Amino acid sequence: MKKSVSIIALFAGLLFAFIFLTDYQRVSASGPLAVHPTGSIPDSVMTFFKNTCMDCHADGGNGMAKSHVNFSKWDTYSTDKQADKASDICDMITKGKMPTKGWLKNNPDLAPQKRDIDKVCKWADTFKK
Asked: Cα torsion at 28, 30, 73, 101 (round to 10°)?
């Protein structure tokens, strides 16, 4: 019994260490938002997208919405296309065009806050050279 508990604890510790040491996308509240060289979306930005955008803009979502940006296919976009889409996302949420009024009516508690918009736009700016 003690041996199996020790093995489980060791495995959990190694898993935690691996996740902690390889989590290069983690963003601090005060630090810059770095984009992984492949254009991956940082966790803090992805959380916002999952809560606010991916009902429509991901596989299983609205066809029209996915034609503009599909987060399920983000990693297949070229870096230039990711940069364009990130800039467009910033513009749309800054101007209040996204999320749509109908979606917001059904999800008022998920409306983008200024800190969310700032975070997304700061991330979008990391694509600029």
From this structure: 120
Q: What pLDDT score was predicted for residue 35?
A: 40
98-113 pLDDT, tens digit per residue, is: 999 999 999 999 999 9
Kindly list the domain boundaries of the chain, sorted by start residue: 2-125
> The pTM is what?
0.69
DSSP helix/strand/coil, 35:
coil
The sign of the torsion formed by the CA atoms of 34, 38, 39, 42 equals negative
Helix (H, G, I), strand (E, B) or coil at 49: helix
Angstrom distance (rounded) from CA 4 to CA 23: 28
Residue 29 in tokens: 């509240």
Burial class (CB in 10 A: 0-12, 13-18, 19+), 61: middle
CA distance 69 to 52: 13
- Quick one: tokens of 37? 């060289």
